């Protein structure tokens, strides 16, 4: 039974990584940049939800809504103020370094406003969960809701990108910004929309993550952010299903690593798997072939 | 009044001046060719007209309206479509999705369907391959797709940048037949070509560009007979 229990926990943790990785991968696919501040948006989202519930005494649903709104606006502002001016910079390193700067800015602002002490995050999920196999297998409500949320988000996002008009615009912009403009697509607007969606997902991920692991500090988002980035690369950066599969696999590997090998080594195992995958398939599991232009 | 009027355009790439004061005009219903060697500034001129590049000075007027500072994504809905150099179809979108992209700014579903039908009629090969990824098409088919995609916006003027580039002679003929047909159906054409002979054979008038300046202009048939043109561009 413990194997199944570990597996489910791994999928649940992986679902959080997947939701974060979707933000990474969409922004990379469309703006061609790695938004290393993405993880810290998660943390801001979690603090927003915490404040809404604890200080304003509002319901968990409203807390999630508040977190999503704040993070969406934050994501758009970060893109507009920090990244957009560098879009045509001669070196793509400029925007990468700026993203790292934004990450520190968010962490330190949170440190200033919320303090360094870990705060206990009340779970937004009141449901006790399921008890199966005569009580031998208990699955918490958080676990089930997290997995379900991830699957729903993934399906909605796929439909959005494939079927909706803004989704089509995203695909066009991700392939060729110039040609997209000639079609009448507002590239700046499309990139802003991508950041908005990614950041809204980060807020959801933050609330789910802190519901399962209830300690919140200004650095809470950093490690899941990095791991989600790994998950996105693992699955093939730029690919939405890739982020999903990468996230789930990463979560499962991490939990199995902790359970069967060593809890201290779990992160090292995660990164080792990434290295092996990239050695065998440099574009990630579902990554597109990189076309060499002759 | 000319449909498209370009006045004393100056364009820089950093410190380098690519366009050194170009003026030309395109009248309703004409086929105008801009010819010249590689690096003469033909593509830069088109990019400036559709707003992908902004000029340092000069003006672009479309149907009397100053569009010099209009962003590229607002040009197509004004009635001007641009078929870029190298086709630039969306390789990972299907042929059908590429065509739909061309009608991105249009709202009326029934009318879009009509245009789609007319594009398929003009390019039967695109209809045969409508579910195929655009990246899997041959060069000539991609050129057709790029042209079909531009026609999906129902433009009054279509700008074409090197449509014959990299195509077989047979395909080049086919593409030029289509350009002529597009023109005959009432769309004004501004054509940029290195293949001067072909371009001049279908154009009404032409402008010859050399290192960012117009060095010669006039009736296309006369330019075809011009000795300096023959020597420099027609290889005779």
TrEMBL record, chain A:
Organism listed in the record: [Ruminococcus] torques CAG:61
Residues forming coiled coils: none
Keyword Transport: yes
GO BP field: D-alanine transmembrane transport; L-alanine transport; L-isoleucine import across plasma membrane
Official protein name in the record: Branched-chain amino acid ABC transporter permease protein
Cellular-component GO terms for this entry: plasma membrane
Any matching Pfam family: BPD_transp_2
Keywords: Amino-acid transport, Cell inner membrane, Cell membrane, Membrane, Transmembrane, Transmembrane helix, Transport
Bilayer topology annotation: Multi-pass membrane protein
Transmembrane domains' residue ranges: 6-27, 60-81, 93-117, 137-161, 191-216, 228-256, 268-287
Family classification: Belongs to the binding-protein-dependent transport system permease family. LivHM subfamily.
Subcellular location: Cell membrane
UniProtKB/TrEMBL annotation, chain B:
GO biological process terms, semicolon-separated: L-amino acid transport
SMART domains: AAA
One Pfam family linked to the record: ABC_tran
GO molecular function: ATP binding; ATP hydrolysis activity; branched-chain amino acid transmembrane transporter activity
Domain of life from the UniProt record: Bacteria
InterPro entries membership: AAA+_ATPase, ABC_branched_ATPase_LivF/BraG, ABC_transporter-like_ATP-bd, ABC_transporter-like_CS, BCAA_Transport_ATP-bd_LivF, P-loop_NTPase
Keyword vocabulary terms for this entry: Amino-acid transport, ATP-binding, Nucleotide-binding, Transport
ABC transporter domain span: 4-236
Family label: Belongs to the ABC transporter superfamily.
Protein name: ABC transporter domain-containing protein
Organism of derivation: [Ruminococcus] torques CAG:61
